[in-house]
Amino acid sequence: MPGYVVTFAALFVGVGICLSLAMAAAWFIASRDGKSGWVDAIWSFAVGAAGIAMALVPWPGWQQSETRPVIVALLAAIWSIRLGLHIAVRTLRGGDDPRYAQLRGEWGKDFPRRLFWFLQIQAGAALLLAVSIFAAARNPAPQLRIGDWLGIAILVIAILGEGLADRQLTRFRENPANKGKVCDVGLWGISRHPNYFFEWFGWLAYVAIALDPTSTYPWGWIAVSGPLFMYWLLVHVSGIPPLEAHMLKSRGEAFRAYQARVNAFWPGPSRHVPAQISKGRPS
Question: How far apart are CA 20 and CA 35, in angstroms?
Answer without folding.
Answer: 20
